[in-house]
């Protein structure tokens, strides 16, 4: 029996790895990437629906101009809770670090 294969050091085996969870290796990205607060976006769409305004969450995430327009519309309504939620979302959509699909930023 040939035991040479059993003793071979394979280049992709890293015996010094500390965790089996792949996400543990990417902690350094937390400061540079942000995701849309989906709970806040859901609250925004429900509050706007309460005022008879239909909001597309897909378009909010994919079209910055659409998102900014809907947030501006929310500020024209006399609803303090909606205005607060819109202001928080505006901070996300106006942030240059927020991930945006290719081609949406100049």
Record keyword descriptors for this entry.
106 residues; mainly alpha; disordered C terminus
Structure, described:
The chain has 106 residues and is mainly alpha-helical. The protein has a domain at 38-93. The chain has 4 helices and no strands. The protein has helices at 38-49, 57-62, 64-76, 80-93. The chain is globular. The N and C termini lie far apart (64 Å). Mean pLDDT is 76; it is low at 27-32 and 101-106.
Number of helices: 4
Q: What is the H/E string? A: HHHH
Total strands: 0
Main sheet characteristics: none
Describe the global form: globular
Distance between the termini: 64 Å
Beta-strand fraction estimate: under 5%
Q: Determine the mean pLDDT.
A: 76
Give a nutshell description of this structure.
The chain is mostly helical.
Secondary-structure blueprint of this entry?
Blueprint: H1 38-49, H2 57-62, H3 64-76, H4 80-93
